[in-house]
Amino acid sequence: MSGVVRAVTDGDERRRGRALRGGRTTITSAHLLIRMEADRRLLRGARERLDGWTYTARDRAYRELFAGDDAAVTAEERQLLDEVDAELAGDGDDGLWGTDEYAVVMGHPKNHPISVVCTRHSEIPASWSRGGESLTEPEREQFNDLLWDYCERVRRYVQDEVNEFVGVAAVPEE
After folding, report:
1. Which helix (H) or strand (E) holds 116?
2. What residues does each domain of the chain span?
3. What pTM was estimated for this model as a whole?
4. Pairwise CA distance, residues 141 & 147, whole Å
5. 3-state secondary structure of 53
6. Per-residue 3-state assignment (H helix, E strand, C coil) for 149-174
7. Residues 61, 159: Cα–Cα separation, whole Å
8. In angstroms, rounded to a whole number, what is the distance separating the alpha carbons of residues 121 and 106?
9. pLDDT in tens, 118-131
C-alpha cells in the first residue's frame, strides 16, 4: 500500500501506473476468487433445494390455473387435460403433469444473482391424436399456451424462493 501511495505522490507516471495496476490486480484476483466460491456455494445450496421449491410452486400454479372458482379452464377442460396426460403417458410419452423441468443458473448480479430457468415446458405435441375425438389445432394451441403459462408461473414462484434464499429483495421481472 505504501508503494502505491508513494508512486501516486511522487508524480512518476510510469511507476504510478505499475503500482496501481499491480495493487488493483492483486486485490481484484483475491476478491474474485472469494466471490466465485461464495457464488458456487449459493448455487449448490439452491440446486439442493430446487426439487422442494418446484413441488410447492407446481402445486400453487396448478391451484391458480386449473382448480377452484377462478380457474382458467372449466372442469370439463381440466378433465380433458387429465385424459390427454394419461393417454400420452400410456403411449410411452411423459404425459403433461410433472414433466416440466427447471434449473438454477448464475444470473445477472444486479437482477438475480441466481436465476431460475424452465428447461422443459409441458405441452401437447402436434403429433398427438385421439382419433376421431382429437383436439382441434386451435384447442391444442390454447391448452399449450395455458401449459406454458403454468410453467412460467412455477418458474417465477421458484425464483421468489431463490431470491429469499439468496437474500435478494424482490426484483421485478422483465
Report:
1. strand 114-120
2. 39-166
3. 0.73
4. 10
5. helix
6. HHHHHHHHHHHHHHHHHHCCCCCCCC
7. 13
8. 21
9. 999 999 988 776 66
Give the three-state DSSP class for 113: coil
Residue-wise pLDDT for 55-97, tens only, equals 999 999 999 999 988 899 998 899 889 988 988 888 777 888 8
Question: Helix, strand, or coil here: 101?
Answer: strand
- What's the number of CA atoms in the CB half-sphere (13 Å) around residue 146? 20
Give φ, ψ of 100 to 5 degrees: -70, 145
- What Rg value do the Cα atoms of the chain yield, rounded? 25
CB atoms within 10 A of CB 81: 19
Residues in the chain: 174
Report residue 170 as a C-alpha cell.
424482490
Give the pLDDT confidence score for residue 112 in this predicted structure.
65
Alpha helices in the chain (DSSP H): 2-10, 13-66, 75-90, 137-166
Q: 146: buried, middle or exposed (CB in 10 Å: 19+, 13-18, 0-12)? A: middle
Q: Is the pLDDT of residue 168 over 80?
A: no
